[in-house]
Amino acid sequence: MKTSTPDTRTLLLQAALACFADHGFDGTSIRMIAQKAQRPLSLLSHYFGNKEDLYLEVFKYLYENFYQKRLDDLEPAEPRVLRDRDEAMTVLREQIHQLYQLTVQKYLSDDPLREASARLWLREVRAPRAILVPLLKKASQPRTELLRQAIQILRPELGPGEVNFVGASLTGQVACHGLMHGYNQLLWGAQEFPGSTTQACELLVDLWLQGLLNCPVPHA
């Protein structure tokens, strides 16, 4: 979070994020958010319209501020096309590093809304609300398409459903490792973990390329 005082719209978004994380969409009222923000109820309608539109704006705020993704920049003019196995393995390594670093950095952040944003995100990944589906697809599609291409090149014998399952398993495992960083260290001992997130990512790369994808690992 920035140290400067947020503008009114941002303040309302932050209050909504905290309320939705604590009480869920159905358990949160517009009045509750206004009270949390200590602002007039009419301002929420002025800036966001209804509760569903506000919920969508909260998730845009999450992506663009916490995860540092400008949603307008996510669709390149020409999608990247992978050419061979070496490029596919490079993409797998890049995506594992990016996703793991992103989730771990969020855990280690001292942002006061860190826990609330994590709880709100976990609420939605179980069963996304219809209003969020276009946003979630837009934010995830570039990574999904690159991984799908990489897996198809590395395991050409897999059918489309199997490719999708492997890709979902990869992103789920890597993201879960990052989100459960503190819990994992509690269970297994912080001193026994790799000394850096880069080392941890390389172990995940080894697991996927050598084990599940049955490929030799070209170390960077």
Give a brief description.
The chain is an all-alpha fold and 220 residues long. It has two domains: 1-66, Arc Repressor Mutant, subunit A (Orthogonal Bundle); 69-220, Tetracycline Repressor, domain 2 (Orthogonal Bundle), CATH 1.10.357.
Question: What are the key terms here?
Answer:
220 residues; mainly alpha; Arc Repressor Mutant, subunit A; Tetracycline Repressor, domain 2; 2 domains; 10 helices; elongated
Describe it:
By secondary structure, the chain is mainly alpha-helical. It has 2 domains: 1-66, Homeodomain-like (Arc Repressor Mutant, subunit A, Orthogonal Bundle); 69-220, Tetracycline Repressor, domain 2 (Orthogonal Bundle). The chain has helices at 8-27, 30-37, 41-48, 51-66, 85-108, 114-126, 133-154, 160-179, 181-188, 197-212. It is elongated and about 60 Å long. The protein is 70% helix and 0% strand.
SSE blueprint and pairings:
Elements: H1 8-27, H2 30-37, H3 41-48, H4 51-66, H5 85-108, H6 114-126, H7 133-154, H8 160-179, H9 181-188, H10 197-212
